[in-house]
Specification:
- The chain has one domain.
- A hairpin with a 5-residue loop joins strand 6 and strand 7.
- It is α+β, with helices and mostly antiparallel strands.
- Helices cover 18% and strands 37% of the residues.
- It is globular.
Length: 146
C-alpha cells in the first residue's frame, strides 16, 4: 500500500543528494488532510540542474476509501528546453497499479514493449525516473534506446 510519508521521505533523500547539482523550485509535498488518513497528495516542482537539464514534475495522488488513483508526469528537457523524454500516465488520474508510458522523441513505449528490455512501467515513480535523468546527464544510453 502506498504510504505518502514514506515515499516522499525517500524522494526528499534523493533530492538532497542533488543539492550541489540542482535547484528545486515549486511546491513542497502537500498531503491532505494534514493529520489522519490521506486523501490527496500533490507535488509539482521543477528541478533545474546546473548543467542545464530541467525536470518538470507533477504527482497527484487521490484516494477514496480503498482506491488509490494517480496522475504523474515527469518531463525532462535539455538546456535549450528541448524535450528529452517524458514519463506519464495520461491526462487524468488512473488506478495506481496501471502502467505509465514513456515518450522519447517520436517513440512511445507502453508496458510490455519489447524495446523496454523487461522494464515494467507499473507503479513508476520519481525514484525510477531520477535514475534515468542521471543516466542522461552522465551520457549513458537509456535502457529503451539500446
Amino acid at each position: 500500500m502506498f504510504d505518502p510519508h514514506q515515499y516522499f521521505e525517500q524522494v526528499s533523500r534523493k533530492i538532497k543528494d542533488w543539492d550541489r547539482i540542482a535547484t528545486v523550485n515549486g511546491n513542497a509535498f502537500e498531503i491532505s488532510p494534514v493529520s489522519g488518513p490521506w486523501n490527496q497528495v500533490l507535488w509539482r516542482p521543477t528541478i533545474e540542474f546546473h548543467c542545464g537539464y530541467i525536470l518538470c514534475i507533477l504527482e497527484l495522488h487521490t484516494r477514496d476509501k480503498h482506491n488509490h488513483r494517480r496522475k504523474v508526469k515527469y518531463h525532462l528537457m535539455d538546456s535549450n528546453k528541448k524535450f528529452v523524454f517524458r514519463v506519464d500516465n495520461h491526462d487524468h488520474p488512473i488506478p495506481f497499479s496501471e502502467p505509465c508510458h514513456i515518450e522519447d522523441g517520436d517513440e512511445r513505449y507502453e508496458e510490455n514493449d519489447g524495446r523496454l528490455g523487461g522494464i515494467t512501467l507499473r507503479e513508476i515513480g520519481f525514484l525510477e525516473v531520477a535514475k534515468w535523468v542521471e543516466m542522461v546527464m552522465e551520457g549513458t544510453t537509456l535502457p529503451w534506446r539500446v
